[in-house]
Amino acid sequence: MPNIAVVLSEWSPTCPGVLGGIIDFAQSTADWNVQHFQCNDHDVENAIAAWQADGILYCADKSPRSTFASPVAKSVPLVTIGTAHAPFPAVIADPTSLANLALEHLDHHLLERVAFVTRAGPSSRNDGSLESDFDPVAKAADAILLQTLSSQLGDRLEHLAVDVAQHELISVGPPMNPTLQGWLAGAKSCGVIASCDRLAAYVVRLTKQLQKSIPADISVIALRDSYICGLPMISVSAVVEPCCELGFQSARLLHRLLAGYPAPFQPLQIAADKVINRLTTVAPTLSQAISRALRFIEENATRGISVSDVMAFQQTSRVTFERNFREAIGCPPGEQIRKVRMAHAERLLTTTDFSVAEVGKLCGFDTIAKFSTFFKNASGVSPLKYRQQRRSNTNGEQVIPKLEESNG
Fold this sequence. Notes:
It is built from 17 helices and 12 strands.
């Protein structure tokens, strides 16, 4: 039975979910003996070596190189979780999904300007000194996020790399940062996307100090949720990392490495899909939520989707969503999906020469029997009978032939 060491940072917000995902994998798939170690313990390296770990799952912001001074991490497979630390294989949250969720929740189309707030790197400090607590890996991740945000916001995006030390972010004193203060002071109908929880809390404190209204003047969202975001005096909205899935997939990757498979060249990215709305943003309005659902149905109904697929884009319970949808549209979402599929089927039967089986496939049905039953229940006639009736009623309407039967 392999000994698997799970190294966690004491204050990391992702740790409970990550550990749960690892345990889920170990219990369902792998016959592992799992032991948890604190990254901040001075003797963690010797403890793991004495335990004779066969593999290491590492979930901490600082590099494994700084945690393990000796070759212990090089002698056994090691997978990092949540942050990519070259040259180790990693499983991380997809930065593009984090950025897109933040933009969607801010409803950025209604905002005049949006600031992406990150910490300045060591080369950006005014006094020329190096900042020992700055992580270059975080800077690389911020660059990917900035690229995603820029592609959607264009000139409305401003990148504010604030020169602030880690201890200043968590200080109880009044925040002081000229760059950020200047931008917030003139902000109206603007949004702020903070790269981490502590930066978001810092922005909220500074905004309140400037007596700006949240979220009327400035909406704030963090790209990673934590207990800090939920503090009563902060209460900042945040994107939730898929912690349990990160843990599960990192354990799966380590299992493959132990079996002799080669390590992947690039980090495995897991998409985030949830935002916690707190006091710093306005929850998406009913019309916005229903509009997104309708657009998703229109674009995907013929792929055989269900209401569960539509629910993946909602932040309410299924009962609440279906009630709101019925009130706004006049029918439940399941019926709207059927209407879109039916309209597409009728159009294909009337204006093309595709066979009934082909029309069924184009409408998301894997068998002609399922399609025929669906169509007859909705219209009262079979697809073939419907086509015959429509063809007899059309006065010279052009029918589009199947491409393979067109001889040019």
